[in-house]
Design goal:
Layout: H1 2-5, H2 17-26, E1 52-53, E2 60-61, E3 68-73, H3 74-79, E4 95-99, E5 103-107, E6 124-128, E7 131-132, E8 146-153, H4 157-160, E9 167-173, E10 181-189, E11 194-204, E12 209-221, E13 225-226, E14 231-232, E15 235-249, E16 253-266, E17 273-274, H5 275-278, E18 282-283, E19 290-305, E20 310-327, E21 344-362, E22 374-395, E23 405-424, E24 429-449, E25 461-483, E26 486-497, E27 500-505, E28 511-514, E29 517-530, E30 535-554, E31 560-580, E32 585-607, E33 612-617, E34 629-640, E35 646-656, E36 659-660, E37 668-669, E38 672-682, E39 686-693, E40 701-707, E41 710-715, E42 720-728
Parallel strand pairs: 6-9, 13-18
Antiparallel strand pairs: 1-2, 3-8, 4-5, 6-7, 8-9, 10-11, 10-42, 11-12, 12-15, 13-14, 15-16, 16-19, 17-41, 19-20, 20-21, 21-22, 22-23, 23-24, 24-25, 25-26, 26-29, 27-28, 29-30, 30-31, 31-32, 32-33, 32-34, 34-35, 35-38, 36-37, 38-39, 39-42, 40-41
Length: about 725
Amino acid sequence: MAKHMARKTLSGIALKLTLSAALLTSVSGLSAPAWAQDADANPDFFDLGQVVITARRTEEQLNEAPVAVTVVTDENLGSGRVDQVLDIAKTAPNVMAFDANGLGFVVRGVGSQAMQGLNSETGVGLFLDEVYMGRPDAAPVYLDDLERTEVVRGSQSTLYGRNTIGGAVNLVTREPGDVSAVETELSYGSNGYARARLAFDQPMGDGNWLTRGYLSYTKAPDGITNLATNQTDLPLTAISGRFTVVGDIGDATSLKFTIDSEKVDDDSMGRWAPLDLALNHQSNLDHSAYKRDRRGGAMLRIDHDFDAFYFSSITAYRKFSQDLVMDGDFSAGPYDPSVGFYALQQGREQEQWQFTQEFRLGSHAGSDLAPGEISWNAGLFYMYEDFDGLEFYELASVPRDMTSRDGLKATAQTYAAFGNISYQVSDALSVHAGARVTRETKSGDVEISSPAGTFVYGPAQSGSASTETTNFSPEAGFGYQLNDNTLVYGRFATGFKSGGIAQFFNADGSVNTYRPETSRTFELGLKTSLMDDRVSLGVNLFNTEWKDMQSNVFISDIQRVTANASSATSRGLELSLDAALSDELTFGATYGYLDARFDSFQYSFYSATTGSTQTVDYSGNAIPLSPKHSASLSLGWERELKNGLEAFANGTYSYRSEYTFDPVGAYKQAPTHLVDVAVGVRGGDWEASLWAKNLLDEKYLSNYFLMSGAHVGIASPGRTVGMTVSKTW
């Protein structure tokens, strides 16, 4: 039973450094006790089971992969109430997730320090079934119908490409089943939370072709009261769906086609407020915000098995659009719903589409090699992207087409070739090396206008620019098997985050362009299984240096640009533990220590307000969204009852120490303690549970910034309790 309900994540425990040192020095000499060596003959034997991942673009067992990765399987996605992409970070050490100008992750302090607004890219790549999502806003809100998620920590530019200097997040969807079935699920919770899910599996023909469809509806009120309008619990509503077909063409060729779509109408977006209100889930705004997101795409994958190697082709198209309006002055004026425009609003309209094509070749050997054998993979990648975006302010009753705005129309093309090879030197030692060459071109047109003469974004001007980048990203590493259950590995990796064009102008009137960020990472790790696979332990040490960091800097009192203004270093430790305590009880824990700081971040600008040149120096400051300590604990329990029933319960505790939201560090988020729990009962084809997210009703900010000396923020969701029932037909 523990195998069924185990978290199966490479999670870790907050052990002291002295304890981890003792484990490292003694683990190679550990042997199974006598009671465990007769496991095959013991009918009561239990273990953690095995998890297969594809984090290195090949199938391998989690404990045998020389890379730092946290996995959450479908069992935990459902029973653990891990239903939003932001929830992934809760049990991953040194990982933070945020929703500001789109979904983003910060891994080991690496993410996106420049909140460019339009056309922004992040340093942690998000992939849906191995298809790269080019913009953070294009990511789905909910984790619908997934088999597992993989959070790969550390630079992954060789196999994953650009914009993965911090790592990569893989969302792996469920494959169609070979038996006809219909799955239904209903959830209802506090504040009017509601969620409905429907899925089906249907074989076709003689069973060589399988289909799966999925549809979900979610209504999630924000729990915030607007004191100016007396509105409360404004909802986010989301409708998402996916359809998948898989099948064989002959004996050696398989095909997979998916199409997906998500529609999100968020009336709770942008509830900024002074901190004394925000932290009490209140706001005081004279304008109700909204955000309308539409995203989706299609993917065709073809795999062919040759005698000596395999071939894969992944062709994909994705599109995203957004219309956003929010209160621009974060204050309450006279509220009159009959008035079309209020004192000050700000908004954004953007649309992006992309086409990607990837070809891969690789050996069949995988990671299970004999001495003298090699495994390899290589490929080509192409991406075309088109972006059209606009930011605007609306003042008083001035029509939108007369207000201050900045706009960007841009295109980008990326070509890349990559390869990786592993060589088994001996029974214990393996080495690997790889590299990726990327050629990227971008062009764009930028315009700032204001027919009414209110130049919020600076003086009216327009211009065009283009950039070209060639990058070579190598990596190398080793794995050494101390014994059958213990792997020590080391890794050196480089990476880059794309440069580009922002919707700003430099002081000389030229269009604002910026260079790529580059990074290099050294990592040393250990993975071991103890007590006949009842305990899984992992330790990672890492050091990342990156330069030419893209940061927002001011060139006047109101004008900002994106510049390569800073360099930084991130170093730390990650510990992980999973344990099957009995055939009914499993335990998991994670701990991360992180020291991520700017080495150099200084710039100057002329202030018309003071009549002097202002110098800003953030050198030595902590990198935003990089808490020094992160930890999690999880516990799962199952017990068989009479009449074929089974009771279950699980809980997760997530901790983050103090952290900041910007390089200034003017506001420090106090440590957070989040608890999620669920308890229920299941039969053969049904399940019912009661659950709570943020059980302790922890009050903390999801976003913050300093505006004209005022601290404003948005609160994260408070406690939500509810129930879920599901049945398979």
